[in-house]
Amino acid sequence: MDALNSWTRSDHTADVNGRPTTHPVWRKGSGPGVVVIHEIPGITPSVAGFGQELVDAGYTVVMPSLFGTDGAAMTTVSTASAIRQVCVSKEFTKLRTGETTPVATWLRSLARELHADLGGPGVGALGMCFTGGFALAMMVDDSVAAPVLCQPSAPFAVSPRRARDLNLSPADLDVVKGRCAAGQQVLGVRYRKDPAVGKRFDTLTTELGDAFIRVDLEGKGHSTVTEHRSQRAVDAVLEFFGERLSTAG
After folding, report:
1. Is residue 30 in some structural domain?
2. pLDDT tens-digit profile of 153-200?
3. Is 75 domain-assigned?
4. If DSSP codes are grouped into helix, strand and coil, which group holds residue 31?
5. Domain span including residue 107
6. How many domains does the chain contain in total?
7. Is residue 226 part of a domain?
């Protein structure tokens, strides 16, 4: 928990599949808002460290805790525990294609609340690994002005169809495409040889065209802004947020 000692904890409640659902939220900083959604196994020191980089760059960062133990390090045990938690939860899609993850409605509510609090053109949303595509699902709400997908890995790429899927329903994909046609952009960051991402970046390029800004890092790493942090990736994220959120407030 030491990694979160300087952060303020609260709770956010919103609908998921017709039921009020509450998750902890950690907040820090000032300036335009950014929602950082942690990877498996949870809000690790590396995730909190990346959040701190955004705070230092002049952003208000909120980190929802969707699973795992807040502040715990990434280990084999913590990762296995988080995967078990994710697999039994009805808040997340794991293998289904053409479906938006249910927790997206909760995340959109969080983004709307942050936008209402801070004003400006909207907030940033960054997902990573299992939650990478969640930022794209959040873009369905107008409050999200800068979605970033770091190594999106759901649904699990265990078949060619799943490896291409964007974790979005057709209706939500139409909304995303409409926003992109109106000038919105989406940033994606991955290691070029990361098998967990599958062919999703190709799908995003096909569906969104020039509105999808892709950063393909060389190598076989996975966690682009945390465990296998790339300065190029972090710089791309900061530049994207700076361009899309700079007039907030």
Report:
1. yes
2. 999 999 999 999 999 999 999 999 999 999 999 999 999 999 999 999
3. yes
4. coil
5. 2-218+237-245
6. 1
7. no
User: Secondary structure of 142-184 in the HEC alphabet?
Assistant: CCEEEEEEECCCCCCCCCHHHHHCCCCCHHHHHHHHHHHHCCC
Structural contact between residues 53 and 235, judged by C-beta atoms closer than 8 angstroms: no
pTM attached to this predicted model: 0.96
| Residue spans of alpha helices (H) in the chain | 45-56, 76-88, 104-118, 134-138, 160-164, 170-181, 200-208, 231-245
Instruction: Name 128's bridge partners.
Output: 150
Among the listed residues 7, 10, 12, 11, the one whose alpha carbon sits nearest the alpha carbon of residue 52: 7
63-93: b or e for each residue (b if 16 or more CB lie within 10 Å)?
bbbbbbebbbebeeebbebbbebbeeeebbb
Q: How far apart are CA 50 and CA 249, in angstroms?
A: 23
Q: What is the spatial distance between Cα 198 and Cα 42, in angstroms, rounded to a whole number?
A: 22
Whether residue 85 is contained in a domain is answered as: yes
Tokens of 209: 């065209």
Burial class (CB in 10 A: 0-12, 13-18, 19+), 8: exposed
158: tokens are: 């265990």
107: domain CATH number is 3.40.50.1820
